Amino acid sequence: MHLMSVCLHRRMWSHITLFPHASHMEWGRAIARRLLHDGLLKLHPDVSKAIASQKAVVALESTIITHGMPYPENLTMAKEVEQIVKEHGAVPATVGIVKGKVHVGLSESDLEYLAESKETVKISRRDLPYVLSKGLSGGTTVSATMVAAHKVGIPVLVTGGIGGVHRDGQNTLDISADLTELGRTPMAVVSAGVKSILDIGRTLEYLETNGVCVATFGETREFPAFFLPKSGFQSPYNVTDEEEAAKLIANAQVIGQDSGVLIAVPIPEDHAASSLVIDDAIQQAVTEARDKGIRGKDVTPFILERIYEITEGLSLAINIALIKNNARVGSRIARVLARQKVPKYHPSSQLFIEKAGAAAKPVSDIHHLWF
Q1: pLDDT tens, 244-282?
Q2: Out of 55, 61, 82, 242, which one is annotated catalytic?
Q3: Which residue of 120, 178, 221, 258 is most buried, as measured by CB atoms within 10 A?
């Protein structure tokens, strides 16, 4: 490794600051060192520089590229979303796995490879050990993206919509790992709510049980349903702008909360779908999936593809519009969060401590190395 690269890595690791988890710190450090030593984790140069200089970075998941859209629309969308993140003052870090290596930030060639390849797999948290050991390539779901992004100190992730409790989930126990990851990984996830093919009511209940703070981005608490700005359910809270959202996330960091935050961003009305058209398409697709015996992680890609076919491409246009909107909102939140000032957290006493007359420390200064 060149001397410059060594110096950059040392500087980067010295600045990576995350949510305080004293019991996991030494173990986390060992994991990170091993990942770096073995070459299993690769950081894009732009991402490592941004982390080292404590600039805003936004993680992006990649199953939307590998399993959510057809080629070449998926590649065009991915590039446009990354550009939107840049235009709004943050550095994009698309997470994906290429030939058994976790990439946080993809090169153009790697992005094109994942978009074009027919051999990619859909990778959740549980799949990581197998995929890495076999040298496979694939798109990371929200849960797997959170795992990688959290390890390198990225606090904000943008996606289209998170997974959730599937319809009839009370009997099948088909519940997305995105939800349990939000319950144990302290990151902020910005999405257009939950995919409307899911059981939104039970998903919100499950998030509550796992201690996930859910807030709608906007003037109301209406919880969005991916293609639709209103699901008929309410978020517990709402934040009116990026300043409020960043303050909420920062306070979750300050108290050392080890669960995540979900910022639900309704799709703009001018891009929203007709509820009747989408509902009919969803019902037909769900019925077909059940009749064909499709289960597990294959359900969502199948249903989304059938909705695309049934709506003659309308769902794809909406999907692209909402992920771009989420990227704008998430980037602005990340930018404010990077400069947010909050009271100091003291890990030994687990109490909020701010010395009288002392200036509040930036968020990045109050956390301890996670690894």
Answers
A1: 999 999 999 999 999 999 999 999 988 877 666 877 888
A2: 61
A3: 178
Residue 17: pLDDT over 70: no
Render 196-224 in DSSP notation, one character per residue.
TTS-HHHHHHHHHHTT-EEEEESSS-BPP
State yes or no: pLDDT of 94 exceeds 50.
yes
Structure tokens given for 281: 């398409």
**Nearest-CA neighbor of 35 among 43, 44, 45?**
43
How many C-beta atoms surround the C-beta of residue 193 within 10 A?
Answer: 34
168 backbone dihedrals φ, ψ, rounded to 5°: 70, 20
Q: Rounded to whole angstroms, how far apart are CA atoms 327 and 82?
A: 8
Whether a cis peptide bond, with omega within 30° of 0, leads into 72 is yes
Mean pLDDT of 326-351: 73
Using a 10 angstrom Cβ sphere, with 0-12 exposed, 13-18 middle and 19 or more buried, the burial of residue 368 is middle
Is residue 346's pLDDT more than 70? no
* Sole residue written with tokens 């064909």: 292
CA dist 60 → 155, 249, 278, 349 (Å): 11, 18, 26, 35
Q: What are the pLDDT digits (tens) for 52-73?
A: 999 999 999 999 999 988 899 9
Residue % of the chain over a pLDDT of 70: 80
Side-chain half-sphere exposure of 301, counting CA atoms within 13 A:
18
Give the active site residue among 195, 242, 297, 324.
195
Judged on CB neighbours under 10 Å (0-12, 13-18, 19+), 213 is buried
